[in-house]
Amino acid sequence: MAMWGGRFGAETDKELAKFSESISYDRRLYPYDIAGSKAHVKMLGATGIIPVATAKAIEDGLEEILHLIQDGKFTFKQELEDIHMNIESALIDKLGPEGARLHSARSRNDQVALDIRLYLRHEIREIQQLLRGFQHALFELADANKTVIMPGFTHLQHAQVVLFAHHLLAYVEMFDRDFDRLDDCYKRVNVMPLGAGAIAGTTLPIDREMVCRELDFARITRNSMDSVADRDFIIELLADLAIFAMHVSRLSEDLILWCSQEFAFIELGDAFCTGSSLMPQKKNPDIAELSRGKTGRIYGSLMALLTLCKGLPLTYNRDLQEDKESLFDAIDTVKMILRVYPPMIATASVRKENMYNAASDPALMATDIAELLVKIGVPFRTAHHQVGALVKYCNDHNRKLNEISLEEMRISIPDATEEFLAVFDPEASVGKREIPGGTGFNAVRQQLEYWRNRL
After folding, report:
1. Cis ω before 315 (30° cut-off from 0)
2. Bridge pairing between strands 191-192 and 219-220
3. Which of 38, 109, 119, 332 could form a disulfide with 228 if both were Cys (CB 3.0 to 4.6 A apart)?
4. Is the same domain home to 46 and 124?
5. Radius of gyration of the chain (CA)
């Protein structure tokens, strides 16, 4: 008979037992379940709800069970449904009826809410540490190529000249916002729900603040119903991970393009690419492609939990058991990306000449001409129109912007001078963009110095 089966007159159907179990995946919560139980039972002893000697015996028993699980000597039983029942049952087997005192003033509803919060505190910090490593890998590649010039793109078309390091640091910025979002999420995770019971708290004289201190939470939850029904902190984390994955996917798309023969801007190390089973010449950037693909999987985890929670009345419903697989999968996927991506980035070799040749297209300096006109007093919209007319003239005559004479330029731009013929230099174009946050050589060095100190 199940541990909750006192009011039932028949054994649980075997198919129902398979359908409803969660031990196959929630077993990973064992260290947090035990940590929560040890804090809980210590409080039970301190408040006199159970004898102090019993509380100490239960603490010791839980420590033994922890070591058994860590050593791979613990047998998880499907019929006990979940990690909570498996540990409690093992404790009762070890201590007899005294072990059954552990669950005083506690429900699996507030117990699992506690376990998940403890688990997420650990996982958020681990993901943040890995994120810093990712940022550092991008920073190192940027710092090693701080003067490399490349074309910047809008609409996947050549736009303006930028530094390769500037492009990479854009992703360092994105991942830093991801880091900060996780910090913010941590604040809402770091709230202690134990003591809420199944829905309404308990009539026993528990000390929730003591448990809060024991487990190093910032504060206790304020409403018992919200404590057991709340999963928005998980949804928030999944949203944060989805945004991170979107950033990775965008970086992946850039790398995939840069590795193509059409771009040939970079090459990744052989150890982080794969070949084709048919075409011997192929070298595929699979980490980038798989990361781009796994982004959809992480989005799916977020949508699954949003959909799961949208129609649930207060408070706890068994549907909430389905929160864990999506959560665990998203966390595992993100951590795997964060472990394989940085070492791949470290192998990237930059084809500086190819980048520079692509950035030498004089059309990328069209905006420089317009802004030069602004400097001599021409309204920007007028300047924009005149340079556009110049581009059309060159296209119509199959000429590049730097292949025409001053007289031809003056057909479209009456105020043009010899100075206008000298703007078609990638280094000069980059060098003029020294505003804070710009792609100028000094501006990017300042960005690199900031990240060198921050990372």
Report:
1. yes
2. parallel
3. 109
4. no
5. 31
- Cα–Cα distance for residue pair 388/205, rounded to 1 Å: 79
Q: Which distant-in-sequence residues (6+ apart) come within 8 Å of 448 by Cβ? A: 139, 142, 143, 146, 165, 169
pTM listed for this prediction: 0.94
Range of the domain at 297: 109-145+177-357
Is 313 found in the same domain as 265?
yes
350 φ, ψ (degrees, to nearest 5): -100, 125
Residue 168 maps to a domain: no
Tokens standing for residue 444: 């990017």
Which residues participate in catalysis according to the annotation? 155, 276
- Report how far residue 61's alpha carbon sits from residue 289's, in angstroms, rounded to the nearest whole number: 48
Please tell me the distance from the alpha carbon of residue 411 to that of residue 394, in angstroms, as a whole number: 11
Q: What is the mean pLDDT of each run of 10 residues along the chain (455 residues)?
A: 58 70 94 98 98 98 98 95 96 97 97 98 98 98 98 97 98 98 98 98 98 98 97 98 98 98 97 94 96 98 97 95 96 98 98 98 97 97 97 97 96 96 96 97 98 97
